[in-house]
## 1
Amino acid sequence: MLDKAGIAKRIAQELQDGWYVNLGIGIPTLIANYVPEDLNVVFQSENGILGMGPFPIEGEEDADLINAGKQTITAMPGAAIFDSAMSFAMIRGQHIQLTVLGAMEVSDSGDIANWKIPGKMVKGMGGAMDLVASSDNIIVAMMHTSRSGKSKLLRQCSLPLTGVKCVKKVVTNLAVMDVTPDGFLLLERAPGVTVDEIRAATDARLIVNGDVPEMKV
């Protein structure tokens, strides 16, 4: 199975030249480290930067340059920094071609829960609600199961929803899946992982059509 970096590498293969891409907190932030050299992709962070680069080399961090998850980042040549009002105008105005989010749960109809666990303190819902309401192309980057081994891919989410029927694709440490009206369509499996192992780790409807190739990461 993949680690978090492997998930990010696989999602980087979904990028297209000229796209503006919003990277959410968690695994998605790693994608900036793995952009193919022949692509011109501009990363946006909801706290107010367009032109976000990969993570800085240790010892070269700038504490004033951070992403939405409060991690230090780099800025690409020509990057722009602005307030959150401008940032959310870009998001709500649908000027972002791809949004990549982390999640705690995803349903097989494309619902996503990624902002609150009942009984636990949270700082706020953040910008995820705006992102899922405004983006037509959402990929979720997540671990397939929880630390206790419970599936995070469900027939119906148990946690408070962030968005309804908005996720288009899910990439986990086990698999790549499209969201379809009939459930998750298994497109690729992680190296060394079998279809039966993916079935066993998935509580949602899972569609398997013929041989499923391994991911190339």
Note: DSSP finds four helices and 13 strands in the chain.
## 2
Amino acid sequence: MRVSLLQQNIDTGLSITSRIVQPTNSLPILGNILVLAKKGMVELQATNLELSVRYNLPAKVEEEGSCSLPARLFFDIIHSLNEDKIQLTSNKDNIILRTDGFEAEMNGLNASDFPQIPQITTKNTITLPLEVFVSSVEEILPAVSIDESRPILAGVLVNITNQQLLLAGTDSYRLAQNTLPIKSSEDISVIVPASTLSEVIRVASILSPEEVTIQLSETEIIFELGQAQIISQLIEGQYPDYKKIIPESSTTHVVLEKKELIRAIKIASLFSRENAHSIELVVDAKELVINSKASDIGTNSSKIPAKVSGNPISINVNARYLLDAANAIKKDTLQLSFTDKLEPCVVKPEGKYHSEYIHIIMPLRS
């Protein structure tokens, strides 16, 4: 293998691919990045067997070939260089890296031992504007469980049916659901690890393509983001039947400014830490009052002007959950809906939105 490429290009590629490499893995090859030189381009590959990344970058390929290099060392060297052009030349399993003022030889492993990244052939392919997709996922992720002992709840339900893409996440105490209109030929329902979606958002922030293309099979999902592909295994199992907890209607609706709600929750949280983060929401004719107390600190009460319709109500919720819900929504104005002190609180953007989004928070017993 003998290739020449720009430092900026390969630095970007390594910043994307090296992130998922696990150097402490029992398989040494998984601590490496695969470099493939072919037909005027270099492809970088990395995998931890559950999540894989491909990245293509332009290069002058004088001799095709492949090598497998230690991810951390490779990235650190490339990132430290300030020369524009870099030449990579293979020496058996090793690579000689040269610039005008620098030369190094890195010990590699046999490229043939690198795990093969899955390819998907499926009709289940959809394309969405990247901004819409990322925003929709960011609204879901706060509700997803971080408890790996329940793998299904550590994933996001991705359901394609009736020309709609539904995303849902829950940790049993809260639920977020988003629905987007799409063009799709086949219906499918899968569970995608939340960690995969977080990686998609990270890569998207680096590359900023206009669209994301998603390919789905029964066992894998691929996200295409310009020059990058993120390939992930899916979570096996049946997602909980969460829809029965979504209220069909509400008797009280409160519309208010997001920044005012966030400010009041943050203050209330200072007094609610020893009380399981419990805060009281009190709705009257013209405002929302947020109360919290701690026996060793004191009490606090914040009043937020609001547009209220329906009956007065008092309900206790987890402050952290309500804050996560408010922060996830991109609009400046929110709507809170209630039915009873023992029924879920519904949080959603006020007015029209690019998707149908709701966030459900289960109440706490006072």
Note: The chain has three domains: 2-113, 125-244, 246-361.
## 3
Amino acid sequence: MARMSEVSRAYLAVGIAMVSVSFASIFIKWSESPPFIIAAYRLGLSCLLLLPLMLWVNGFSDMMRFTRKELMLVVLSGVALTFHFELWIVSLSLTLVATSVILVTSHPLFVAAVSHFLLKEEVKRVAVVGIVIAFGGVVVLYAGDYSSGGESLLGDMLAFVGGLFAGVYFLSGRVARQTIGVVPYAFSVYALSTVLLFFSAALAGDKLAVSDPRELGLFFLMALIPTILGHTMFNYALKKVPAHIISTSVLGEPIGASLLAYMLLPDEVPTVWVVAGGALVILGLYLVLALGYGPAVRQEEVID
């Protein structure tokens, strides 16, 4: 019974995260700061928001007891998250929100393959079908932007590679979360990524200090909503939910981000390609989340 409630909480966390991460691209589009500064302040403020929880759960003591394997996983996650943010945020300045967000979340096939062959997690046939359909939706959306060429194609490429790094982030997190608590794990990964992002910003010649209240307010919103309620909720769920499920769940972000962009950004009008591709993504999500993992969850609940 206890395990059943834990699994239910994990899936609730996935739902909260799917909604929360959809706001990230909107806040980034509203910001006028350089890409590396946006990402650095977003994760730095996220660490500050997690600090009270770190003290509450003695997270710093847990960090001091990381094994070599756990430390390597945290470093891998932090580096992957850094490259993910750097590539994706730059892509948002080169292409539409819908295209960028969809391509950056096009990593489920990669994550599913690694989850199955390396992590030995079962990927059911219906889940595979759902992942393929969802990825087909991503391809449809990409095709709609292909004719633009130039900066749009560069932005698309950066978003896609950023998505691969997101896949590495979820996979390493899936392994790390089996033995590391969500708070010390998230705090250590975000802190490492913050340092790397500020280093990147310095190399790029960006001004590191930001004093504009509007920009600081946007950074705080990025930290609170898409990071704490988004990424951290995904990290919480990773202990109970296989990585390919989490990875495919992120495909819900393009739908939410596209709708928000349509309502809040005047130049972001969804096309027929967006509608058609979005429908395929939703269908794929249903197959994966509603049918692809249900039997395994019930088996765990009966055993424990």
Note: The chain has one domain: 2-303.
## 4
Amino acid sequence: MITRNIPYHAIVEAVKELAIRAAYELPSDVKQALQEAAAKESNPRARQILDQLIENYQIAEKDRIPLCQDTGLAIVFVELGNQIAVTPPHDRTDATLIDAIHEGVAQGYQDGFLRKSVVAEPLNYRKNTMSNTPAVIHLSVVSGDRIHITLMAKGGGCENKSQFKMFNPTEKPDTVAAWIVDVVKNAGANACPPFVVGVGLGGDFEQCCLLSKKALLRKIGSHNPDSYYAELEKTLLAAVNASGLGPQGLGGDTTALGVFVETAPCHIASLPAAVNIECHSHRHAGTMI
């Protein structure tokens, strides 16, 4: 039963604001994690790099400029209340929620002076769409009369180092964990450490990868509610940081700020695993309407 109508342009404005805010301002938990990493870093060069990353986010927020020249592909997670309807504008009666999100992304990247990084076709002519659209949209329906929108600006360098693997269901947990750590280590300097690492386990091919990306939205310092996977997160983070890769791949104690594991039921014959790498410029913003 529809109990609330949200105007189309309210969605556009909300997404536009999220695109700009995500590009200019790191979330508070990421800032705190960088500050804590710098305070305890034993390698002088690594500590200097971390201090520079802190200075970078301070300048970006103060001067209202992008945190990074790669302002990312817009990944939009939407939780849509089942009592909501989006009211289209009078001159576009066929316009949908998805159209509003794309329009908001385009306006945000235009008005925020953000680099447009989307090509319309991947293999042949690769012409830039000049709007940073289409966004990648993940829509789920939940109960209630509100809509929760989260936008992540996902840079190409870290996304390129993400991986998926289908293990045999008999594989030992230590082997899966070792593969996850190797994926992060092999990401190297090209993915701009220190990283935030999302891990998906279970589901099927596409759900596993989506889990790994959704894991990136967890607050740094949080833990999986299942004690087994919470311990796995701690083990993985310790192993990644013991690699010595360090900030910007130049050595140090801080290769990752956090490792987050999300799981889903899977087929008896399958053990899917996905690792989604995020760089130190871990840009995302959310709003509730």
Note: The two ends are 18 Å apart (CA to CA).
